[in-house]
Amino acid sequence: MTKQSFAVAVLASLFVINPLAYAEDLEQSCKMLLNQTLPVWTMASISEEVKAFAAERQADPLKLRGDFDGDGRQDIVLLIQNRARPVFEEPDRIKATRIAVCLAKAPSMVLRLIEEPYCDDFIYLVKRGKNMYDIEVGNLGKYPVDAIGTTCFEKAGAVFFFDGKIFRRIINSD
User: Distance between CA atoms of 21 and 163, rounded to whole angstroms?
Assistant: First the structure.
């Protein structure tokens, strides 16, 4: 084996190992940025029925990964509350809930907060290319980037997608 082929093999193995380390670092970096930005916050509360629903689908109702700004880098989204302890009861729950979008940018991370998430029970990933449907307007084409779905469990929902400047809200169920 030549030095060059050995170097290529080592680099290839790093690309297999590093995505997992990067994924963990991404979440930790996001949480550190939240700690710097918000004086107090916690992960959002979730009901037992939402826990069961998410478990059936092997989904995390409080965390998403995707390319939410279309730059090819993996970003992370957390459903949080700006309280020291989770709030379970409405209307305080919706007032406390925020969507923290941490966009991976070189060489650091950018935090965008969605202050009024419309729904607060859980978040889910809407993949780029899926149909964008607004209940008031109808079909709006396809999502240009991965988007963040929010749900009021079995009641209503909205999707947020980054248009290059802001996260736009599309109400997709009511």
Answer: 29
Residues 6+ positions from 82 with CB-CB distance below 8 Å: 38, 40, 41, 96, 98
| 23 vs 37: CA distance, rounded Å | 21
CA distances to 7, 28, 74 from 20, in Å:
21, 13, 12
98 close to 80: Cβ distance less than 8 angstroms: yes
Q: What's the pLDDT at 11?
A: 33
Per-residue HEC secondary structure of 136-155 comes to CCEEEEECCCCEEEEEECCC
User: How far from chain centre, in Å, is Cα 132?
Assistant: 18
Look at 22-36, 132-146, 160-174 and tell me which has the smallest mean pLDDT. 22-36
Question: Which segments within the chain are labelled E, that is strand?
Answer: 42-43, 63-66, 75-81, 97-104, 109-114, 122-126, 131-134, 138-142, 147-152, 156-162, 167-173
Whether the CB-CB separation of 120 and 114 falls below 8 Å is answered with no
Which stretches of 57-127 are DSSP H helices? 92-96
pLDDT at 24: 61
Asked if the model's pLDDT at residue 79 lies above 90, the reply is: yes
